[in-house]
Design goal:
Oligomer: single chain
Radius of gyration: 20 Å
Number of strands: 11
Order of helices and strands: HHEHEHEHEHEHEHHHEHEEHEEH
Strand order of the largest sheet: 1-6-5-4-2-3
Distance between the termini: 32 Å
Strand content: 15-25%
Bound molecules: 5-amino-5-deoxy-1-O-phosphono-D-mannitol
Amino acid sequence: EKGGHDYFMLKEIAEQPQAIADTLLGRLSDRGEIVLDEVRLTDQDLRDVDKIFIVACGTSYHAGMVAKYAIEHWVRIPCEVELASEFRYRDPILDRSTLVVAISQSGESMDTLMALRHAKEQKARVLAICNTNGSTIPRESDAVLYTHGGPEVAVASTKAFLTQLVACYLIGLHLAQIRGVMYADEVAAVVEKLQQTPDSLRTLLGRMEEVRELARDLKTASTVLFIGRHVGFPVALEGALKLKELAYMHAEGFAAGELKHGPIALIDEGTPVVCVVPSPAGRGVMRDKVVSNIQEVRARGARTIVIAEEGDEDVRAYADHLIPVPATPTLLAPLMTTVPLQVLACEIAAARGHDVDQPRNLAKSVTVE
Ligand code: M6R
């Protein structure tokens, strides 16, 4: 049942190219329009939206953080991301023209469900992104976009995360198109890039041997830090979360620019720092900033593990370990950069002798608040 893999998690990591392809399947109409699933909202309802809130927990929250960058860039509507467990307690300002996007793999997370109920009471429209057909969250939402990741058994979310990203991209593109911010051919160009990601990911997954070796090396580290900027920031948070939940190690993700405001004091001789480097194409400035952050931590003794686009040879000089990933447009890059971090956490946990699929104290769906 694990398809020849030692753990469900490894099987699910390997299934990611297919999961992305399945989530994209049939989404583009002949007219180049994005087709969503059960959308019980009219195009006019979606045109009237003037603010978006994304609510979710854990890994799904990290998908929401990535979505904010994509949605604001493409749709030009303010988009906030909030932990579902915090959302309703601060009395958010919601009305008919607010779209609340609830992201949940299981569709049963109580925190997310309560956030969506609160949003509905305030007359906001709710759109769910969910991997589980007929679960509570999509049932209670005005619209649903299902991720076609297939069942996820391991407690640690992997393929659900990547398919949530795809769903968020599709929603962003759909909104941009019906609101006239992007033309059909512009949308189709992004979809084409999305359609190339399963192949790129297969290539990347074929090169994980070095990450496995690195995992054996890092298994005794007392802390692992992760840094990133822009969409690399949620990827850093996701890498740290995976390591905490599976390897029971101290790990933290930071926005690379925040380092100098405090966390850099944590860096000591040999502290492993995983650095997610943006693509040099398009937003070169951001990439250069991350490269200076890498130099800063290295100057203080950090051991740097650098995830960078292949061909970005200049970063090699600052990397104790370089993990190249296939070139992907900036906003879509988390579909690549997250994957080595999943493998790293899984292999470190295994090397430490933990039950990778069933980490202590955790449940696959968290049905209490
Ligand atoms: O089913 P959900 O997406 O609502 O679950 C949210 C979190 O509980 C979940 O992502 C959790 O953080 C994972 N175990 C992380 O790997």
